[in-house]
Design goal:
three-stranded antiparallel sheet; six-stranded mixed sheet; homodimer; alpha+beta; 27 helices; Acyl-CoA_Oxase/DH_mid-dom (chains A, B); FAD binding (chains A, B); Butyryl-CoA Dehydrogenase, subunit A, domain 2; 14 strands; acyl-CoA oxidase activity (chains A, B); 9% strand
Amino acid sequence: MNNTTRTTTDDAELHDAELDSPEPGDRAVDQARIDVADLGERLLGAWKDERLAARAKVANPEYHKVPDLTMAEHRERTLRQMQMLADDGAVNLAFPRSVGGHENHGGNIAGFEELVLADPSLQIKAGVQWGLFGAAVMHLGTDEHHRRFLPDIMSMKVPGVYAMTETGHGSDVASLATTATYDESTEEWVINTPFRGAWKDYGGNAALHGTAAVVFAQLITKGVNHGVHAFYVPIRGDNGDYLDGVGGDDDGVKGGLNGIDNGRLHFTNVHVPRSNLLNRYGDVTADGTYSSPIESPGRRFFTMLGTLVQGRVSLDGSANAAAKAALAIAIRYGDERRQFAGPDGDETVLLDYQLHQRRLLTRLATSYAVGFSHESLLRQFHGVFSGELDTPEQREDLETLAAALKSLSTWHALDTLQECREACGGAGYLAENRFTQLYGDLDIYTTFEGDNHVLLQLVGKRLLTDYSEQFRGADARKTVQIMVGKVALRILAGSGLRQAGQAFADFGSIARSAGRLRRPDEQYELLSDRVRTMVEDIAMSIGRARGKSKAEQADVLARHQHRLIETAKAHGELLQWEAFTNALADMPDDTTKRVLTWVRDLFGLGLIEQHLDWYLLNGRLSAQRAATVSRYIDRLVARLRPHAQDLVDAFGYGPEHLRAAIATGAEAERQDEARAYVEAQRRAGTLPVTEKELRRRAEAETKRAKEAAVTA
Amino acid sequence: MNNTTRTTTDDAELHDAELDSPEPGDRAVDQARIDVADLGERLLGAWKDERLAARAKVANPEYHKVPDLTMAEHRERTLRQMQMLADDGAVNLAFPRSVGGHENHGGNIAGFEELVLADPSLQIKAGVQWGLFGAAVMHLGTDEHHRRFLPDIMSMKVPGVYAMTETGHGSDVASLATTATYDESTEEWVINTPFRGAWKDYGGNAALHGTAAVVFAQLITKGVNHGVHAFYVPIRGDNGDYLDGVGGDDDGVKGGLNGIDNGRLHFTNVHVPRSNLLNRYGDVTADGTYSSPIESPGRRFFTMLGTLVQGRVSLDGSANAAAKAALAIAIRYGDERRQFAGPDGDETVLLDYQLHQRRLLTRLATSYAVGFSHESLLRQFHGVFSGELDTPEQREDLETLAAALKSLSTWHALDTLQECREACGGAGYLAENRFTQLYGDLDIYTTFEGDNHVLLQLVGKRLLTDYSEQFRGADARKTVQIMVGKVALRILAGSGLRQAGQAFADFGSIARSAGRLRRPDEQYELLSDRVRTMVEDIAMSIGRARGKSKAEQADVLARHQHRLIETAKAHGELLQWEAFTNALADMPDDTTKRVLTWVRDLFGLGLIEQHLDWYLLNGRLSAQRAATVSRYIDRLVARLRPHAQDLVDAFGYGPEHLRAAIATGAEAERQDEARAYVEAQRRAGTLPVTEKELRRRAEAETKRAKEAAVTA
């Protein structure tokens, strides 16, 4: 196979016949419909009741975002909504039973995710209060802290700030500059902000409502810095004024989430009691002697941060909820809206255009994949936090999985919101149709709870570590065996998702048949092989730097940064594909499963199309076969088109959740009215003839006259 | 060359040496700096004075966007700014001398583009008033209309609506449903909205401020529909109330541009005098007899629409102005901000990370390309509208060029704003740093003045038409000759850009040397060959449908819609690359030119990297050579990194234009303060030792003690 051969359309079309050859049952499906109710049940997942309860709340107009408020008004409204949520009690799901909670970690996140369709400001303010501020007290504090602080946090009596990020340090938490120095004489912590860059920044509740904060600071006692720990620090009195030594600033208007009063805080030698150290992972005695159940300062730090993984887990699901709602709106509109006359003179429905199918249905497939992988993530999260599956390895896997999936899904949400916005034209730009509002709010999801690029770099490094662990003590031959045989499995096992379990009979060979691309083992092979090979390539480059100076080694890794991030993305995409495929395995063999299998194929082949250069560059697909990928995608979107509305209906969002003027049937009504008007004019003979038609008639008349003259 | 060969990193690194081999002068440039002032002059282009005058205006705080206004307050503010602009008189540049204008079409657009950095709401409201409403009167009306209407339009005495788009019809203007029926008895036009879908929608000035509108409607006289024409229609009285028969609605809050009162209008048999038809391209006598200087209704329609190309031209430049400002802000911040310690313990400057360079500098290269291609577009626009170069072919080329470039640049702006936002983390999300505000405002630029996808489809169809014209009367052999030899030239000639003039010695051959990728003729060959081949492929598929039914032919084109759009994009990218290369040819052979040549290479190779799958699929690059493209880009961004700040400084925006808190040097100050603080503590011996360091010391101590014990 020579890659200088020009792939002509003719060549390619020979292979297309294969793609068109129906699998058993394909024809029947063209007529059949998916079972929307059954699919909807499946999509609700393990915490169906909590999701439905949250959706019922979201339906309440009191919780809805109102677009044209000033920042001050929006903040007030969100605060009122917070109190409603607190009074409702549903926010207590995750908290300890000792303080009236239910220790239902998965259900808590599932319900939380649904809030995004009320108003993302409410969701994130709730996330700050209960998911960060409250969760820090819960996970980093001990029983006494739970009793002292949690009830008022749960009831919103004490709105609080999660004061981690500083103006000078965001993702690099270990380098925070705020200090908490133990004063033995008073048995107090002295919280201090040494310079402007160490101001706490972007904290929700900081600008206005917060009366306390969990402040992350370098714990210093007896002249030793024991690293970042969390301290409970009151910041405002009952009158709303800062307490002595506390000051701050307002972050002002943002790109969205303006219902949240994000702001800055600084501390000038603020004293808090020794017992305000949240001391689960590190404590001092009255005389200032430090101790920790975790010996290594590095592992201690990551363990503390790891307890806060739920933020990333919840953003993964929330981002997809917004994407799914956007797709439900844009697909409904695309299924009703007509534009430009087709060859029969009738105007074409937008969703009948190939490009419109490409734009919306590929993203719909991704949202399905994100949904299934999120459900896996949520189960793993629940397993770890409920204690059912809580081992250090499970925690580490959970963190890697959450980092990979959150990055991909938050970008997917923005990409989908923007594409839906544009696919609906001017109507898509109006606040009443929600895309732009959700985009502005969700924009920040890509960099908070961990900048996506930083998170992916962590994932990439984890993949490299896993890879290098294969080689401990191995000789060269064994090295190669391990490299060829086991890496992909290790990577997958390390992902926390169970394996798809396919046979890898001719692993590494070129995909020989276009039709094979729709086989899941073939897709799996292509996707997993890419991850494995990319990891290997980087690892080998790094391996060559062994023995060089630390700076040179760092330089080698730095020069592969872009590739490392791409590798981490590829890994995350594989996990999504695998979760989708696992979900299919659980479904009965019916029309719904068949249609969803096409959706999975569209997702898988969409990934292969996106990375086609890699497959060609590395000889994994021949040019001839690669050329069929895009054509097969064109066929898949056409095949899915009749099921598009059903596939978004299965998300289960009602008009009270979508709340978009263009997704109410109004467009279909307008189209019907317009067509009825023209038809009535036509029937009545009052439709003006067009100049064009008149010219055609005149020409025909002239021609007839000439012919008549000739005949005469 | 077998494409099943695995391209190992080792293979690739062999070729990398070629990329690293310096061209004459490369080394010197590493030390030298570009001449920012000289480059800045060049970038100001042909209408430097008008640009600088507009930038001086933009510096006035009265014109600046204020983030936290309600929609009503923002509309009021924008209206006041409009009056200031009108009083200033600068908005009259394009209007006829007969009414006090200057007929300076290029200068008018150049100045208009700069307004985006004041407030895009002001820019677009100005665009509605003078660029659409006023320009329609100017271009579609005749002298009498100019005298009657233009003075009040220019002075803002009559704010007006450009009432083209309807709720039911956006990009498909020919299908508008509003009617203007001539009533011979009263010698009046009767403007009527037949159904809800025919309401005029999204019109600026429609919701509140407009007192007149240019209404596009189907002209009907003597029972014949002569197609869409424009009518001047008063809509509100002095008291602000609708006139009889006029009604409407407010579009409400949008994703941005909330300083503009977009709204809907409908007409119930509203009568206007016969002379209110803007009659340059079609008129009726008192008895209702229609006449037009353009015989064909189709050509007449496109001629009328074509006069309004300036909207697209101006968006191309405006979008890039926003992208350039965003890059200036993000690069300044990236050059000051530090995050995560490097191997020497010092924190690394963001812009020293490969990924950060990749994210920002590739987009910087695109902004340079967009800037140069925009200058070409603006000159062509001025040539046509000043009458200097006004032929039907030039007009048609201008429209194709504007459609291609506007689509690419408006997407580039959104992509760049979002990437800059994320590259600045939480700070990027604050309104005070502008990215999110500009994003919300510019979002709609991708679908107004023509939906980008619809525009690109027009470009694609033009390419096919040009292609098929080669074959008129040609036999099969000649067909092939033409196909192989001339198509690329024809396509380029049709673009209105002068040709780069390279020799195509081994056209179609595989790029044999990695080093050759930096040769402009090689880049040209790769980019232009791709356009040519993609056009050919679609044309051949369509050719095979010859003789089939109209519906089948339409189906073939429909099945290639996605590829046609990709082809149009490739064409636009080639035009951008060519304009950049032409601009380099005009520069003296100095450091600035050398650095800009790297920027051009980064743009060109960036395109080749984006479409690498195509080059591999079609055998235009071998796998081995293709693998070097990404590595060469990594080298280019590293090489450009020291010049990054100079390259954005050359855009010439001062702090009064950028107005971003993070682009004021504040971050550098904070970094300096933090480092000075730590250094002072270190010198004073008060810096707490870390637990980690303490453990290291303890271990060393134990080791020493053991050794001492052994020695003793």
